[in-house]
Amino acid sequence: MAVARRTSRDIRSESRLIVVRALLAAGETTRNELAEATGLSPATVSTVVGDLLKYGIAAETGLIGNGIGRPTTGLRFNADRGRVAGVYVEDKYLEATVFDAALGRLATVNASAETPVEEADDVIDWIVRILDTALDRAGAERGDLLGVGVLLPGGMQRPVKSAPTPGGIWLHLDRLRDRLGLPVVVDNPLKAIATAELWLGAGRRSGNIVTVSLGYGVGAGIVQDGAVVRGATDSAGEWGHSLLVFDGRLCQCGRKGCVEAYIGALGMRQTVAELDPGHPLLDGPDGYVFLHAFTDAAEAGDPVAVAALDRTAHYLGAALTDLVAVLNPEVIALTGWPDFPACRERVMPIVWGRIRADAPGSAAEDLEIELVGRHGMEGIAAIALERFMRDVGLVTTRVLPAL
Amino acid sequence: MAVARRTSRDIRSESRLIVVRALLAAGETTRNELAEATGLSPATVSTVVGDLLKYGIAAETGLIGNGIGRPTTGLRFNADRGRVAGVYVEDKYLEATVFDAALGRLATVNASAETPVEEADDVIDWIVRILDTALDRAGAERGDLLGVGVLLPGGMQRPVKSAPTPGGIWLHLDRLRDRLGLPVVVDNPLKAIATAELWLGAGRRSGNIVTVSLGYGVGAGIVQDGAVVRGATDSAGEWGHSLLVFDGRLCQCGRKGCVEAYIGALGMRQTVAELDPGHPLLDGPDGYVFLHAFTDAAEAGDPVAVAALDRTAHYLGAALTDLVAVLNPEVIALTGWPDFPACRERVMPIVWGRIRADAPGSAAEDLEIELVGRHGMEGIAAIALERFMRDVGLVTTRVLPAL
């Protein structure tokens, strides 16, 4: 990577992305309001708005008068510029969502398979079928799509040596692109959730955000200076596989003592087992089902579940404190089990206590933690939209991967 | 913090900083070579070079001919544009270094006190005296200085509530500025070392760097997309106070299990004590003296020191793997004890083994680790130079603090 490859074209690109995001956030607005919201000069905003009108991404809404001064022309994001789709694919589960161009959700269709879908062509067939169904429900057709974003679980890194994804589809996305005749982008959930937060969430008021996803697996997305941090091989954010305990529990990844081995679903199960190896929760299923059963049991007052949840909250607080120490974000946006009704009141005070006690210096003083619920699906749709703007020449941002 | 406050002025500023750094790196060069090195367009480079010539930061060196085509005008950084000074201050130790404008070191003077210098005015007197001596040795006077950078140890954060620095001088830098009649900038070693690496080290080929300082305390500096990451309250990089062991050893900071409590000087001493509570190394002094005695003992084959050093190398490898997992840098630049002759051959293979085994996916595949030796002093001088360029209107970058 060169020290810098910025040109005046990149600068224009950056201004355009900033205005696009501000327009999306604003609903109906004006050029002056956009200048105020973005900090860009009125002249720059006017130029950018001109470009966005030309490409149909912005639309004028007629004159707005506030009774003071002369009326100005209203602006909005043109949601009907087209549609974008997000596809989430696991080996036995598939989901397709169709959004309007303003990232409003129009239709979601999901499907599951009895046995893992293993062949790449079968996975592609499945994606195309479910996507077409979702388009149909949204009253749209393939030709309306500006792009398709595919969300693949797991640590997706380049160069691809192994493909831990159904049917090795990550290696065959060109076939999907050819079948659909549409631009396809692919990314992993950590980057997609960070992008969703940047476009639709805390990114509207801060450029320095960490998104934290807590589910079966755990991970983070990093937004720095208004851009998603990707890292040298696209694997930044693997906080779930940073250490909580040197030489501690064996993690699924093979390393010992990872954060995920304590606050992922399997980790919580192990905490229950350490407290009471014969606890009935351990007879039930794993994953999300366990997460709900476990947190419900804690809410109902089961003493082992309460103790295990409290201990998990301490683990979470400690692991978040590490992010605060290293990255010192303005906002942490949490998605996952801490937002379960059974957890909110019990977990967050413990987490905050740990962060306040242990964060270095004043690092946690102005910190906000949001329990959000931004989805990777919105993020991958935003990435597909960004890709569309790149294809028409409006932005020059690095969008991954080049398909 | 607003989503963005970028204007075309910021863009020009960024181009100028990029060209200044490339010019500093190049020695004698040409406009075309600068365009190639920076990726900026030849037109942008010409404009920027014009600005730099105007402010005396660049100088022309006459015609350069390579025998092919017509000769072009050579360029260099104008080291004689002025001088910049760095001052490092602890309660019983002070160092002042005078650099030329191209950050070449001209003279260093240091001094130590028997008892801590505690009053702010006494600290300021001391700084002025030692700085004047250093200027004298460099054949310069105060009037030659473009600026002075003060390097303060410890976790310096804003807003300042406590002043863990000699004489609370951090709270009284305006007095130092008034005494010297010169612009003064202040920063902590983590940010300064990251800046030095960005300006003079790995920043010449990568924009995605983590600097790691290992000494009495430990910490990191983060360079992302060619800029030093500061964080919401200027405390990003406090990796030394992220966890290695949940509820582990008590750290000096009050938290349990911090990285520093295992790979800082006190941590290594504790590792020796755990292996052999009666070991003679424990009778000697602490800090750097201990570090040298300890690593020398390991090199001489003392079995306890060897075992403790190996264990420390595992701790270091694990803690660096966390940085790789979360930030996925292209380069880690290490400064400190791993570069001691006694450590190089023994420590780094263990560190690399741990990183290769434990880093997620392909995160460590293209990673480089440099044992450098970039100093905070060069970094604080670079920050002072950046501040000078800001004061004359060449750059708009945020430079801390506003004094």
Automatic annotation (TrEMBL), chains A, B:
**Entries under InterPro entries matching the protein:** ATPase_NBD, ROK, ROK_cs, WH-like_DNA-bd_sf, WH_DNA-bd_sf
| Regions annotated as coiled coil | none
Keywords, A to Z, come to: Kinase, Transferase
Signal peptide coordinates? none
Q: Which Pfam families match?
A: HTH_24, ROK
Q: Name one GO molecular function term.
A: kinase activity
What is the similarity comment for this entry?
Belongs to the ROK (NagC/XylR) family.
User: Matching PANTHER family, A to Z?
Assistant: BIFUNCTIONAL UDP-N-ACETYLGLUCOSAMINE 2-EPIMERASE_N-ACETYLMANNOSAMINE KINASE, ROK (REPRESSOR, ORF, KINASE) FAMILY
- What is the protein named? Putative NBD/HSP70 family sugar kinase
Q: What is the lineage of its organism?
A: Bacteria, Bacillati, Actinomycetota, Actinomycetes, Glycomycetales
